[in-house]
Design a protein that fits this description.
alpha/beta, TIM Barrel, 6-stranded parallel sheet, globular
Amino acid sequence: MQLLSVVPRSSVRPIALAAAILVLIGAAGCAAPNPSTSGPSPAQPTQIAPVPTMAGRTATYGPSPGKATPEASNTLPPPAGSLPSVNSCDPASVPGATATSATTSVKPDSFTLHVPVLMYHRIVPLNEAGNSIAGLVVPPQTFDAQLTALARAGWQTVTMATLADDLAAHIKPPAKTFVITIDDGWYDGFTYAWPILKSHGFVATYYVIAGRIDAPSFLSSIQLRQLMAAGNDIGDHTMNHVNLTAQGNAALTYQIDAAASRIAQVTGAWPRSLAYPSGHEDSQVVAAVGACGVLRMAVLEKALFVTTPAAAPKPGASPVPPITQKLQAYETWTYRFLVPRIRVSPGTTPATLLAWLG
């Protein structure tokens, strides 16, 4: 991390000092990031009329223009693309990055958690979604309505990092605990999703494509740091979002390990979990993920459901349809790299989501 140079006071005369200050101010203005590269322009933010949600709370969907970053200007990180590639999951390979805690010894299948993991991709108005797959675009109002229903029903969130630590330490989270994951690292995870999450007291795990950090329309290094500082978790979604089952050993190491290292370089913390791009995995891929010691869990793009049979109808009555499907969530140490998730779509109603989670 490089600091901006500062001219020593003792070496600058008053007139020169004033000129230097004016030059620095002008340079700072020219160097300010263009908001259009990471979302709607602050000058003309996309705003949707406030919608009443939980009692005493009004949600406004959209960016917050002028919001200060959590770091001083002289500690801004270099662009992610300028950082060297480190094909290693060894915490010592990225000086200054917080290492994960040591894994405790766990007996296979001796402990099981039942924490549902929800999967989102984009939380953004449809007119800003571009060419994104329609089924992966959840409008902010829908996202807020889904979370409102869960919050009112007493559900609370943890991150995948916390879930992994709980599994290793044999700690059962409180009842009605779930995880929110947001894949791919689009800018709207910060400008739209995070304000809604925060309004409910929720946190999420953001699975970012490491090679797209600081790229136009994706999360910036500063945004990732701010999300981390607020209690969210940044997970590994590979370097380039490729099908891991089609990669050789060297490419797997690069996609998994170098991506984890890049996240550590940018955020100062190693990721604890990985999401398989498009859900592609096999035994070789799972082994490669497990070989990256900082990764404790990996999540799929599929869910397991059970359907509770309906009660037998009374004599002469019409047949009773089966009860709505319920998510069968589980996490065990043996299958910690094959954790199922449930994809939440724009058509998932709050009632359906509550039925799935039970």
